[in-house]
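Worked problem 6 (solution included).
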Amino acid sequence: MYNSYSSFTWTCCAFSAATWAFLIGGYLPYVGDTRIGILGYLAGLLIGMAAVTLASAVPSYKYGVDTIDAAKSSFGTYGVLLPLFGLLATLVGWTYVVVALTARGAANVVQTVEQSTDRPVEGMVIVLALAALLLVWLIASRGPWLFERLSNYIAPGHMIVTVIMLGILLYQFGPAVFAIDVPVDQALVKTKTQGFALAVEFGVSNSLTWWPVMGGLTRLVGKRRHIMGPSVMGVGVLGAAVISMVAALAAVSAGTPDPTIWMIKLGGPVFGTVIMSFVLLANVATMIIMIYLSGVSIQQIRPLTRLRWDLLLGLILLPGIYVAFRTEWVIASVMSWLSINGVMFVGITGITLVDYFLLRKERLEPEHLFSRDSRNIYWFWGGVNWVAIVISLGSIGLYLWMYDPVAASMNAYAGYLGAGIPTMVLAAVAYYVVMRLVVIPSGIGGYRDAREPKHEIVPAL
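Solution. The predicted structure is:
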């Protein structure tokens, strides 16, 4: 479906540039120094997206399979339920975040048009959230073709909006806007070094949440050279870093991280409303992609393959009804959710990257990815690679020991590099060592076959 560099870049950008990019950017100044927050976030995004693209996007592109199918080669036929759980939590969870942002933003737009200064009426917010869920269900039920077309308009539109907002900030505050910081007592950390490490952590955490997504997109890409650049630039730089930079400057200037408030506050009641309306409409495409990918992946659970596509998507969106009544709480918890979401994939990313590139030498056996019996080379022990499971769970424990995402506090070991990068590297090293010393010599997992090239049978003339 993506036959050019630009088409996939714009899809990645449109996907990444949902309202959450503005919301996350609004929290970057709270590392203590706005400029350090912006630069650290960019660094974390570049490092994290490079790792995630290699671990998730490349094997899915080569074999045309979903991320979860490719992960069976490292986690086992049934062990893949662990990353599948993380995938569904990511895609569905962020869909609900965008639903909450869209509903509250739309309510703010309505009140601005009506020239009302009161807080959004909760009844209106609930109705708008339910309407957003219904719209996403109706469009996603028709398949993936629509979001590819929408992205060619939405992503450039996001970039235009971002440039306009930056122009407004420079017009109102001048270059001094880059020197505005939050009050010292509101900073999450005390030193600039810790602030940079925390900002890097936000970037890495954001990137890791893309592990379950990139494979589902790159399996629709036509050429290998269109994978890495669009993924890192579209998701990491254009869709996340650039938009979050402007959002950070706008939020610290307006005194609130909520983009549904500062967009209208900075842009004025008319122009701000127009910008906010476009951003809210663009959220629909993002929600459609996430729900579509959720529907594809959840069919790894065999009984669900018998459900009609529209009914399956309806079941996935059903818990969103609860979210419609708790939108304010969802928005307030978004940064904690970002880090908790990222920690799910910190070990998985390191494991799948090492397994595919270093242990399997970029060779998978597709027919075994779809087999569910003991003759499958990815069967390991009863369908589970316990080495991958234990290291993934251990990585979560190590990460949480180094960094508490709820309190946004790091121990001394995470004060320079954050927690995501060291944990991902340690997980990759541990997996490689245990697999090379224990599993591969035992002949389990089909690794010997992966190292021995297969010869094609040439028919006799």
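Discussion: Residues 453-461 have pLDDT under 50 and may be disordered.
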